[in-house]
Amino acid sequence: MTNYDRTVSESSLAEMLRSRGLRLTAQRQLVLQAVLDLGHATPEQVHTAVREVAAGVNITTIYRTLELLERLGLVTHTHLSHGSPTYHAAGEHQHVHLVCRNCGGIDEIDPELIRPFADQLLAQRGFRVDIGHVSLFGVCGSCENGDQE
Amino acid sequence: MTNYDRTVSESSLAEMLRSRGLRLTAQRQLVLQAVLDLGHATPEQVHTAVREVAAGVNITTIYRTLELLERLGLVTHTHLSHGSPTYHAAGEHQHVHLVCRNCGGIDEIDPELIRPFADQLLAQRGFRVDIGHVSLFGVCGSCENGDQE
DNA sequence: CTTCGTGCAAAGTGTTTGCAAGATT
DNA sequence: AATCTTGCAAACACTTTGCACGAAG
């Protein structure tokens, strides 16, 4: 999320691609950077962001690249409410998403908060929760107090 | 989930429709019953189930009816992984979904298990989790132990 | 008989695929 | 030069909309 992280991920990209005989292209760098910059973004939002820098990039490339970046372990996606999935940088800063059904806002919380519950699930049901993929729906604080937008 | 519940919901349907000047139709009864029977189902699965009884029902009607039943508070939907949402009966037996990323299986747990965590979120972040809408992704017990399918 | 609901067809989203032209190594 | 990537267009899957006919109250 900081410049430092971005540099780390950008260089990982070059290495990960090379080590698999894949190629480093401007599009791939731009898509990764867009995901890092946006924090949470749908393929379409990534597309828009990338286009601001390189107008000709096709949405197809966005989809293919997001899929690739996910295989490389650089990004992950979650399914927030309806419609398109949203992508975000993977690894370091895992987080649980809090999605407000009213205003559509997305908040994040430290995954450690859900750890006790996750551990309980593992112990009781043998189910290992993927904490980086959790999205909880509900109503955020602002909307809860008549700040209805 | 039992016959008793079904009866309750079926009669609720008639009342809720009447009280709003809407009409009770065979399609609406069939869709509701399918959701109750199936437990978790995508619009397409509901369609298939309904067709077994009434062949001519159109998928459009399934969509419209599911939306209606949701407005009436009789069913809810969740977004499990990618693709179509899945619907299930609302109210009484709320539950949290455990979705296995490996085998695709859906398990349910008592929402009380997540209550402490939900309460914590409300206290700390003012976010009120909609427990009936929670889906957690991960790996289920069977898949966790080499029962890889 | 009035108003609501359904089926059908068509239009909309969002996503994937096939293929030739273009870029990277 | 070899092969991976991209853009484009078309195909897809899922969902929504418009409208006339049919059904419920």
From TrEMBL, chains A, B:
SUPFAM superfamilies (alphabetical): Winged helix' DNA-binding domain
Q: Where does Zn(2+) bind?
A: 100, 103, 140, 143
What is its cofactor? Zn(2+)
Family, according to the entry, reads as follows:
Belongs to the Fur family.
* CDD domains tied to this protein: Fur_like
Gene3D superfamilies linked? 3.30.1490.190, Winged helix-like DNA-binding domain superfamily/Winged helix DNA-binding domain (1.10.10.10)
The entry's keywords: DNA-binding, Metal-binding, Repressor, Transcription, Transcription regulation, Zinc
Q: How is the cofactor bound?
A: Binds 1 zinc ion per subunit.
What is the native source organism of this protein? Micromonospora musae
A molecular function annotated in GO for this UniProt entry is:
zinc ion binding
The protein here is known as Transcriptional repressor
Which InterPro entries is this protein grouped with?
FUR, Fur_C, WH-like_DNA-bd_sf, WH_DNA-bd_sf
Provide a GO biological process annotation: negative regulation of DNA-templated transcription
